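Quick one before lunch.
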Amino acid sequence: MNPDLIETGTAEAAPCDGSRRRFLSRLTMGLGAIAGALVAVPCVGFLLGLRKVPSAWRTVGKIEEFQIGGTVKVSFRDPSPLPWAGVTARTAAWLRRNSQTEFVAFAVDCTHLGCPVRWLAAANLFMCPCHGGVYYANGTVAAGPPPRPLPRYPVRIQGDQVQILTSPVPITT
Ligand code: FES
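Model of the FE2/S2 (inorganic) cluster complex:
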């Protein structure tokens, strides 16, 4: 049977429009190429490090909310959340107040594979629940697979507010 002929329901066969078939074929390939580019371009940009993530100062609370010697978890908005990030745009840090004016902030992300670490005040340690990573109070590695100390965020005081300079946290695989 000739592929350029289609049945019309009558005894006659009408010639199929070959240019329409070619048009639909090219349209399909074109839309496929556009869809592929929409997925590939951001991925390639990320892999090549072309997407710059800005740092931003985030307020995490008033000075008087933090006890001297205490370590508490503070949460804040990621510096460059994707539009569809929703609640995942929020991240956290462990903030310790050392004196009237001195604060130190640790990333919550374990340097092994990124699990959130917990502060155990009784043990004076940060513990990672995933593979047994343990960090001393100053963020250095005490035990387990973490290859590096917990990253720190710069902290400043603006008026009566404590602010953290957020930035992407490097994770080792
Ligand atoms: S992710 Fe923390 S020890 Fe593996």
